Amino acid sequence: MWDNQSGVPEFILEGFPLSVDMEVFLFCVFSLLYISNLLANGMILGLIWLDVRLHTPMYFFLSHLAVIDIFYASSNLPKLLENLMYLYLDFACTECMILLVMSYDRYVAICHPLHYTVIMSWRLCIVLAITSWTCGILLALGHLVLFLRLPYCGPTEVNSFFCEILAVLKVACGVTWLNKIFLFAGGVVFLVVPVSLIVVSYVRILLAILKIKSKEGRRKAFSTCSSHLCVVGFYFGIAIMVYVVPDNGHRDEQKKILSLFYTLFNPLLNPLIYSLRNAQVKAAFNRAVQKKGTVKEG
What we know:
It is built from 10 helices and 2 strands, in the order βαααααβααααα. By secondary structure, it is mostly helical. The radius of gyration is 21 Å and the shape is globular. The N terminus is likely disordered.
């Protein structure tokens, strides 16, 4: 641990004050959840890769979401501040942008179905994906540069189970107003603005669905959006509560629980929601199982 006031020291993560028995129990639970996250998102990636029928813009962006969720949960394992904070913020921001892009994809598919293949060309999909990843990298790099300029001369116990950005700011002894302004601006740009655009997209989608005369047509159109809406609600809802809602100074424990849900449970919910509520994904899974069974019999 560094004694001078320049540079970044090693931080002691306080985590949750629990008994030894509870720590062992939670270790087993979280390990199971993490493994489930890897398996579920890996299954989504495998199905999209192997099934030609899923080679569409919607599942192209879903594959990016699966990759993000795998590394998003994994980014909290390293202990080095530079790697940890950089990766965590990178994946968080990129997921926000991918969810926004997916809402645009659903808008084009439902509101402009005849021009869908023209508008959502593979060139545009690749550009949108690269832009999303670039935004995440730039935001994380900006936070990292601002953190490296801060002195850390006091106690280095961070009241979190990983180097969460707000928790680390509280142990800095320098002036942090620039970091807080950058954090708030990032919250507005990558949380509030995407949520607003997603709401606008789904308002127009809802109006288009209501114009469909057949009940079966309306049901099918809405089912293609329900999975994405569930993921957006979980992800942006928690993120806004943590990073945009003003802190009254008495929400540290609540934020730790929300961050835990955000880190471990949300990446696992994404593939489960898209698998259980998506007929195409379930059909692709059945075809993969049948194909494997045929190969074994042969």
